[in-house]
Amino acid sequence: MLHAGVMGWPVAHSRSPEIHGYWLKKYGIQGSYERVPSDPSDFETDVHRLRDSGWRGVNVTIPHKEAALSLADEATPRARAIGAANTITFSRSGRILADNTDAFGFIENLKERAGASWRREAPAIVLGAGGAARAVVHALLESGARTVTLANRTQSRAEALATAFGPPARAVEWAGIGEALAGAGLIVNTTSAGMDGRPPLDIDFAAAPADVIVTDIVYTPLITPFLDAATARGLIAIDGLGMLLHQARPGFEAWFGVAPQVDETLRALML
Ligand code: ATR
């Protein structure tokens, strides 16, 4: 029996057990994937306990993503660049390997849903400057985005992020988003605004080109007010569920030995 799971505090809300549970059944693997509540003060001890009891690895969610990177023996370049890890694998010799698959999930979803219609040479606008924005900016730059324009309610955070990545990432004022949308090829919301129970972002899409792709990494609700507003203007809108599904693939493959597919049954299960 192969064991893996997700660590968080709280962790009850995590949808990862449904994803991995679906794949374990689909591929006929003798394995389990469990929620592991882990208080931040116990996180390191909990990781070692799971490793020592023979687990294959874990996903890590809020608030442990930075701690997961710091306690790792090895980390992938993308985890280092993002400054956080969401996937830990225990090697046969007991080493702790940290990866960040959020950027991978974001790009795979974009490729699957937008295909060739994403214009990489046009500016990509990223709203927000938290951990999720870091993963998205990394993903965009890795995949050849010519310019990444960051805007955040607290401007200093957008500037810090732009400085951390360097050109072609740059920051603009939150109030200047409307103008920044002119000529954009992609607009990504990474803020937590519009999540269930929170006030939505009020973005004016008037200046955005007709072929811009609008995407939100929030998936509760599936269609955020941000995506709704984009659709109302006839723009292409891509929800964030696919990012969640695709980010789970590398961990599943590392722990259970099968490269899983995101299929329509899984998507439907998550709605
Ligand atoms: P994460 O690391 O998961 O991305 P975070 O660091 O809390 O989470 O970042 C949340 C992001 O949503 C921030 O960019 C935040 O803006 P501030 O830096 O100004 O706090 C943004 N955000 C949250 N609520 C918002 C709102 N109502 N309007 C605009 N931005 C909002």
Automatic annotation (TrEMBL):
<comment type="subunit">
    <text>Homodimer.</text>
</comment>
<dbReference type="Pfam" id="PF18317">
    <property type="entry name" value="SDH_C"/>
</dbReference>
<dbReference type="GO" id="GO:0019632">
    <property type="term" value="P:shikimate metabolic process"/>
</dbReference>
<feature type="binding site">
    <location>
        <position position="217"/>
    </location>
    <ligand>
        <name>NADP(+)</name>
    </ligand>
</feature>
<dbReference type="Pfam" id="PF08501">
    <property type="entry name" value="Shikimate_dh_N"/>
</dbReference>
<dbReference type="InterPro" id="IPR013708">
    <property type="entry name" value="Shikimate_DH-bd_N"/>
</dbReference>
<dbReference type="GO" id="GO:0004764">
    <property type="term" value="F:shikimate 3-dehydrogenase (NADP+) activity"/>
</dbReference>
<dbReference type="GO" id="GO:0050661">
    <property type="term" value="F:NADP binding"/>
</dbReference>
<keyword id="KW-0560">Oxidoreductase</keyword>
<dbReference type="GO" id="GO:0005829">
    <property type="term" value="C:cytosol"/>
</dbReference>
<protein>
    <recommendedName>
        <fullName>Shikimate dehydrogenase (NADP(+))</fullName>
        <ecNumber>1.1.1.25</ecNumber>
    </recommendedName>
</protein>
<feature type="binding site">
    <location>
        <position position="61"/>
    </location>
    <ligand>
        <name>shikimate</name>
    </ligand>
</feature>
<dbReference type="InterPro" id="IPR046346">
    <property type="entry name" value="Aminoacid_DH-like_N_sf"/>
</dbReference>
<keyword id="KW-0057">Aromatic amino acid biosynthesis</keyword>
<feature type="binding site">
    <location>
        <begin position="152"/>
        <end position="157"/>
    </location>
    <ligand>
        <name>NADP(+)</name>
    </ligand>
</feature>
<dbReference type="GO" id="GO:0009423">
    <property type="term" value="P:chorismate biosynthetic process"/>
</dbReference>
<keyword id="KW-0028">Amino-acid biosynthesis</keyword>
<feature type="binding site">
    <location>
        <begin position="14"/>
        <end position="16"/>
    </location>
    <ligand>
        <name>shikimate</name>
    </ligand>
</feature>
<dbReference type="InterPro" id="IPR022893">
    <property type="entry name" value="Shikimate_DH_fam"/>
</dbReference>
<feature type="binding site">
    <location>
        <position position="219"/>
    </location>
    <ligand>
        <name>shikimate</name>
    </ligand>
</feature>
<dbReference type="Pfam" id="PF01488">
    <property type="entry name" value="Shikimate_DH"/>
</dbReference>
<feature type="domain" description="SDH C-terminal">
    <location>
        <begin position="240"/>
        <end position="270"/>
    </location>
</feature>
<comment type="function">
    <text>Involved in the biosynthesis of the chorismate, which leads to the biosynthesis of aromatic amino acids. Catalyzes the reversible NADPH linked reduction of 3-dehydroshikimate (DHSA) to yield shikimate (SA).</text>
</comment>
<dbReference type="GO" id="GO:0009073">
    <property type="term" value="P:aromatic amino acid family biosynthetic process"/>
</dbReference>
<feature type="domain" description="Quinate/shikimate 5-dehydrogenase/glutamyl-tRNA reductase">
    <location>
        <begin position="121"/>
        <end position="193"/>
    </location>
</feature>
<dbReference type="InterPro" id="IPR011342">
    <property type="entry name" value="Shikimate_DH"/>
</dbReference>
<dbReference type="InterPro" id="IPR036291">
    <property type="entry name" value="NAD(P)-bd_dom_sf"/>
</dbReference>
<dbReference type="GO" id="GO:0008652">
    <property type="term" value="P:amino acid biosynthetic process"/>
</dbReference>
<comment type="similarity">
    <text>Belongs to the shikimate dehydrogenase family.</text>
</comment>
<feature type="binding site">
    <location>
        <position position="102"/>
    </location>
    <ligand>
        <name>shikimate</name>
    </ligand>
</feature>
<keyword id="KW-0521">NADP</keyword>
<feature type="binding site">
    <location>
        <position position="86"/>
    </location>
    <ligand>
        <name>shikimate</name>
    </ligand>
</feature>
<feature type="binding site">
    <location>
        <position position="247"/>
    </location>
    <ligand>
        <name>shikimate</name>
    </ligand>
</feature>
<dbReference type="InterPro" id="IPR006151">
    <property type="entry name" value="Shikm_DH/Glu-tRNA_Rdtase"/>
</dbReference>
<feature type="active site" description="Proton acceptor">
    <location>
        <position position="65"/>
    </location>
</feature>
<feature type="binding site">
    <location>
        <begin position="128"/>
        <end position="132"/>
    </location>
    <ligand>
        <name>NADP(+)</name>
    </ligand>
</feature>
<comment type="pathway">
    <text>Metabolic intermediate biosynthesis; chorismate biosynthesis; chorismate from D-erythrose 4-phosphate and phosphoenolpyruvate: step 4/7.</text>
</comment>
<dbReference type="InterPro" id="IPR041121">
    <property type="entry name" value="SDH_C"/>
</dbReference>
<feature type="domain" description="Shikimate dehydrogenase substrate binding N-terminal">
    <location>
        <begin position="6"/>
        <end position="88"/>
    </location>
</feature>
<feature type="binding site">
    <location>
        <position position="240"/>
    </location>
    <ligand>
        <name>NADP(+)</name>
    </ligand>
</feature>
